C-alpha cells in the first residue's frame, strides 16, 4: 500500500471507526455509569472528547508511544522540530541541516493531516448527533487534559525534551515478572543446545494475508538452513515446515525473551516488543512495516544492539 492510499484510507475510516465505537452497545452501556475521570488515547478519539466535558470530570491522555506532532501542543509541550526526532522515518539525532529541513517539512504535513482528520471526525460526530450543542470546538476540547501518560522511557529518548509536571512516562510498565513456560514449549527450547534459538514475531497487527508469499517462502527456507531453532508466532499453517522451526498462533513473548538460550529476536519493531527486548537484553533484527516501528528500529541500530531489514529487500542473500 502506497502512502497516498494509506492516507486516503485513514481519512475515510478513522472518523467512521470513532463514531461507530461511540455508538457500540457495550460503550453505550458503559456510559450509563458514573466515573471519576476519563482516560483516552490522544489520537483518533475526538468524538469521545465531549464525555469528560459534559460530566465535568478530568481528561487523561494516554499515548501508544512517544509524542508525535501535533500532539505536544495540545498538552503544553514545546515541539522543537530541530532537535526532536520523528517517529515515522529513520533520521536519528544529531541532525544535519538537510535532516532538519526534512523534519520541519514532515512536521508541518503531519500537523495539517492530523488536524484535518480531527475536523473530519468532529464533523461526522455532529452529523450523527453525537456532539452536544453546548460542547466547544474539537480543538478547544483537545486542550482540556489534566494529565498525560506516555508509553515511552524518557531516559531512552534522545535528546530529552522539556516536559511539564503533568506528563508521566510509563514505558515498560507492562513488563511482568517471569512465568514458567508450558512444559512442551520449555522442553523444545531447552533442547536447542549451545546454538540456542531465535524468536520471530510480527506482533498482532501483521496477519499472514499481509505477507507476500515470496517473502514467506524465503523466510521458511532461511530458517530451515540455520543451526538455531526458530520459534515463530504465526496464525496459519505452513506446509513443509523445517524440523527446527515451530509455529504457534500465540506465544508468551516476555517469558520467551527471558529464556537463557535465546540468541535473537526478529521483530516488526513495535514499541512493546522493543521495550521488552531492551529489558531482557535480547539482540534484535528489525523488519519495520510502518509508523513508529521505523524509528524504533532505527534507534536500536544506532545504539548498537540490533540491525534492520526492509521488506522489499528481504530476499535470501540479504536475510542470511
Automatic annotation (TrEMBL):
Pfam families: UDPGT
Keywords assigned: Glycosyltransferase, Transferase
Record bears the keyword Glycosyltransferase: yes
Molecular function as annotated in GO: UDP-glycosyltransferase activity
Coiled coil: none
Positions of transmembrane segments: none
Protein family (similarity comment): Belongs to the UDP-glycosyltransferase family.
Protein name as annotated: 2-hydroxyacylsphingosine 1-beta-galactosyltransferase
Protein's organism: Armadillidium nasatum
Amino acid at each position: 500500500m502506497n502512502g497516498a492510499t494509506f492516507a486516503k484510507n485513514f481519512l475515510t475510516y478513522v472518523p467512521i471507526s470513532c463514531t461507530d465505537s461511540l455508538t457500540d452497545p457495550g460503550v453505550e452501556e458503559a456510559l450509563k455509569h458514573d466515573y471519576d475521570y476519563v482516560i483516552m488515547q490522544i489520537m483518533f478519539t475526538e468524538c469521545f472528547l465531549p464525555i469528560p466535558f459534559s460530566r465535568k470530570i478530568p481528561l487523561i491522555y494516554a499515548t501508544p508511544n512517544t509524542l508525535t506532532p501535533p500532539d505536544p501542543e495540545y498538552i503544553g509541550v514545546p515541539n522543537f522540530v530541530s532537535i526532536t526526532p520523528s517517529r515515522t522515518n529513520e533520521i536519528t539525532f544529531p541532525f544535519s541541516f538537510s535532516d532538519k529541513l526534512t523534519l520541519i517539512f514532515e512536521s508541518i504535513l503531519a500537523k495539517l493531516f492530523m488536524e484535518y482528520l480531527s475536523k473530519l471526525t468532529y464533523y461526522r460526530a455532529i452529523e450523527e448527533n453525537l456532539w452536544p450543542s453546548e460542547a466547544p470546538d474539537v480543538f478547544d476540547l483537545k486542550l482540556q487534559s489534566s494529565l498525560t501518560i506516555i508509553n515511552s522511557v524518557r531516559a531512552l529518548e534522545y535528546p530529552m525534551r522539556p516536559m511539564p509536571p503533568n506528563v508521566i512516562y510509563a514505558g515498560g510498565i507492562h513488563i511482568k515478572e517471569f512465568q514458567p513456560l508450558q512444559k512442551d514449549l520449555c522442553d523444545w527450547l531447552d533442547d536447542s543446545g549451545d546454538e540456542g534459538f531465535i524468536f520471530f514475531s510480527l506482533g498482532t497487527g501483521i496477519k499472514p494475508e499481509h505477507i507476500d508469499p515470496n517473502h514467506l517462502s524465503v523466510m521458511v527456507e532461511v530458517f530451515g538452513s540455520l543451526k538455531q531453532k526458530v520459534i515463530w508466532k504465526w496464525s496459519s499453517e505452513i506446509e513443509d515446515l523445517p524440523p527446527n522451526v515451530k509455529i504457534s498462533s500465540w506465544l508468551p513473548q516476555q517469558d520467551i525473551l527471558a529464556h537463557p538460550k535465546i540468541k535473537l529476536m526478529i521483530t516488526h519493531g513495535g514499541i512493546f516488543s522493543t521495550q521488552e527486548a531492551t529489558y531482557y537484553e535480547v539482540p534484535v533484527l528489525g523488519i519495520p512495516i510502518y509508523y513508529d516501528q521505523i524509528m524504533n528500529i532505527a534507534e536500536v541500530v544506532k545504539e548498537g544492539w540490533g540491525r534492520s531489514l526492509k521488506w522489499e529487500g528481504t530476499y535470501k542473500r540479504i536475510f542470511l
